[in-house]
């Protein structure tokens, strides 16, 4: 069995090529595996052991394997005539390679996702990178120019600090969209958001500090969102913008309400008006 190695001097060995061809069909490897775990099986025994295969398909598979010298029929009874299917040395070799190939396929990692984490606060950048490193390939940058150097069409998600030295996050974002890279962007900042967010083409907006669970969830969501069509992506991005502005407005309302409660206790009984005009006018007038 000189061809037993997966690769020979001239490339793939004969056994390897035959095993790969067998794996292209669903049932030959299954039958080989069943026979490898036995000293031989009659047709009825194989049919009972492999109920997912019809008897007709099992017969065709056995004929194919017999034609390739992977198994042979051995007479086990003359009266009545009965035969058992037994793996040949060649069949045992192919079955072992099929098993190795199947194990290798199971261990091949999914396509590696690339994330760029950009933040001028090195402690924050290190923390965010650590949160993602176990699952993604992470590149780190600490200013706008470094961020642009790390970006490319292969990057799936950019975690972008809005205020950085050199080029700001807004400028990096504008540059990125000019390149027409299919990169999802989560903008993250300690600043309170304003209506200028409607002029920025990001996908998600987070206000620091951000919890690890929320951070990981947003990145995972953006990777999945990269498979959506452009209209749905634009809709979800607009939702994120409005949500960020509403959260900031609600926080301001809470602070104002606390101040009013301190100075005018009787006002606590009056209904508070929701100040949404800024959101409506901004949403109708700008695009992300």
Short description:
The protein contains eleven helices and nine strands.
Q: What's the overall geometry? A: rod-shaped
Main beta sheet? 5 strands, parallel
Gap from first CA to last CA:
65 Å
- How do the strands of the widest beta sheet line up side by side? 6-5-7-8-9
The secondary-structure class comes to: alpha/beta
Share in helix: 40-55%
Rounded to an integer in angstroms, the radius of gyration calculated over CA atoms is 32 Å
- Write down the overall mean pLDDT: 75
Written as H for each helix and E for each strand, in order along the chain, the element string is EEHHHHEEHEHEHEHEEHHH
CATH architecture of the largest domain: 3-Layer(aba) Sandwich
**What count of structural domains?**
2
Low-confidence segments, given as residue ranges, are 1-12, 260-288
Number of strands: 9
CATH superfamily of the largest domain: Response regulator
CATH top level of the largest domain is Alpha Beta
User: Which fold name corresponds to the CATH topology of the largest domain?
Assistant: Rossmann fold
**What percent strand?**
15-25%
| Number of H- or I-type helical stretches | 11
Keywords: DNA-binding, Phosphoprotein, Transcription, Transcription regulation
Protein name: HoxA-like transcriptional regulator
Pfam family, one: HxlR
Region (Disordered): 247-288
């Amino acid at each position: 069995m000189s061809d037993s190695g997966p690769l020979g001097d001239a490339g793939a060995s004969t056994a390897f090529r035959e095993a790969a061809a067998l794996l292209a069909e669903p049932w030959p490897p299954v039958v080989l595996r069943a026979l490898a775990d036995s000293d031989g099986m009659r047709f009825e025994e194989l049919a009972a052991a492999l109920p997912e295969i019809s008897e007709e398909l099992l017969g065709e598979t056995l004929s194919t394997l017999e034609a390739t010298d992977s198994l042979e029929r051995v007479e086990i009874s003359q009266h009545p005539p009965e035969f058992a299917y037994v793996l040949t040395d060649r069949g045992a070799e192919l079955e072992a390679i099929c098993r190795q190939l199947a194990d290798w396929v199971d261990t091949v990692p999914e396509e590696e996702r690339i994330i760029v984490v950009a933040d001028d606060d090195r402690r924050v950048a290190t923390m965010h990178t650590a949160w993602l490193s176990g699952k993604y390939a992470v590149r780190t940058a600490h200013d706008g120019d470094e961020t642009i150097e790390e970006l490319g069409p292969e990057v799936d998600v950019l975690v972008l600090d809005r205020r950085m030295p050199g080029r700001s996050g807004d400028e990096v974002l504008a540059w990125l969209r000019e390149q027409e890279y299919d990169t999802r962007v989560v903008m993250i900042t300690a600043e309170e958001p304003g209506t200028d967010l409607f002029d920025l083409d990001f996908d998600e907006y987070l206000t620091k500090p951000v919890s690890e669970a929320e951070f990981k969830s947003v990145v995972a969501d953006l990777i999945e969102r990269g498979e959506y069509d452009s209209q749905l992506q634009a809709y979800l991005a607009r939702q994120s913008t409005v949500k960020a502005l509403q959260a900031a407005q609600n926080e301001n309302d809470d602070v104002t309400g606390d101040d009013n409660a301190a100075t005018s206790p009787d006002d606590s009984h009056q209904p508070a008006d929701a100040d949404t005009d800024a959101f409506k006018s901004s949403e109708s007038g700008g695009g992300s």
